[in-house]
TrEMBL record:
InterPro entries per record: Aminotrans_IV, Aminotrans_IV_CS, Aminotransferase-like, B_amino_transI, BCAT-like_C, BCAT-like_N, BCAT_family, Class-IV_PLP-Dep_Aminotrnsfr
Function: Acts on leucine, isoleucine and valine.
First-level EC class: transferase
Pathway assigned to this chain's UniProt record: Amino-acid biosynthesis; L-leucine biosynthesis; L-leucine from 3-methyl-2-oxobutanoate: step 4/4; Amino-acid biosynthesis; L-valine biosynthesis; L-valine from pyruvate: step 4/4; Amino-acid biosynthesis; L-isoleucine biosynthesis; L-isoleucine from 2-oxobutanoate: step 4/4
Swiss-Prot/TrEMBL cofactor(s): pyridoxal 5'-phosphate
Family according to the record: Belongs to the class-IV pyridoxal-phosphate-dependent aminotransferase family.
Keyword entries, A-Z: Amino-acid biosynthesis, Aminotransferase, Branched-chain amino acid biosynthesis, Pyridoxal phosphate, Transferase
Species per Swiss-Prot/TrEMBL record: Dyella lipolytica
Keyword Amino-acid biosynthesis among record annotations: yes
Superkingdom of source: Bacteria
Name of this protein: Branched-chain-amino-acid aminotransferase
GO molecular function: branched-chain-amino-acid transaminase activity
Gene from which this protein is expressed: ilvE
Upper classification of the organism: Bacteria, Pseudomonadati, Pseudomonadota, Gammaproteobacteria, Lysobacterales
Alphabetized CDD domains for the sequence: BCAT_beta_family (cd01557)
Amino acid sequence: AQQYPEWIWQNGVIKPWKDATAHVMSHALHYGSSVFEGIRSYATPEGAAIFRLTDHLKRLYQSAKIYDMVLPYTHDDIATACRDVIRKNGFSAAYLRPVAYRGLGGFGLSAETPIDVAVATWPMGPYLGPEALDVGITACVSSWQRFAPNTIPAGAKAGGNYLSGQLIAREARRLGFGEGIALAASGLLSEGAGENLFLVFDGVLHTTPASASILAGITRDTLKVLAREDGIDVVERDIPREYLYLADEILMCGTAAEITPIREIDGKQIGSGKAGPVTRRLQQLFFGLFDGKTQDKWGWLEPV
Ligand code: PMP
């Protein structure tokens, strides 16, 4: 059975996990009206540190702005809640999940409900399985496309978006693949169910643009910065589906997935079928941030 941590932060107080409840008639439960973040803290030689907490919370407030949700807490209040809930549970390497949602206060689509906020945390290892970071995963191109621009904003990390993610991920797993990759409404490549994509051609990283209905991932941004710093070129561009089959290397990235190589897509081997040199280098640089081997020049590690 699923194990839960002891403590959770809800609406300003840390309470036992089982007491953090919401009413069944909460707006968000019916209409998907929540915004959230997924953040990791790592055990570093200098103690527990939350990776890019400020940037994640900035995106949380941006997501909320798109849906006219005014959080009754400041960015600093939520940052403190993140730190407090990790400390209270005695965690260091953990996942953090701040969520703000339309609560009980009206049943109309445009109801001005109260905005409730919670911050949960739980221990988390590699998201796509323990071997995934090393040997890579298999993936398929989903029969489900991403929502088109001007339908649901992909740039907001909102609860309702994850109906799309569930269709993509569940189909992939039903068919025996590790993860699903979606095309945008344009027919061009978008992203994974919960991860951004990088393809490597001749040592250059290619990633899909905002116009391909992606979430602008913080891991994606991290890899762009680390790669350029290391002399690896990065281009953001439209990518047709068949490029998936022709790339030298492909990786998925996200807070949960970290940097996961893809070894096979739609039954076709990618490159050598193993993590390639660019993927390995990015993993080394990325994970090096957390054991002190990569210097954190950007202040990305925010102490708990
Ligand atoms: N795309 C989607 C749809 C996601 O859910 C995520 C995970 N938040 C990502 C990309 C990766 O974003 P990040 O690196 O900020 O976790």
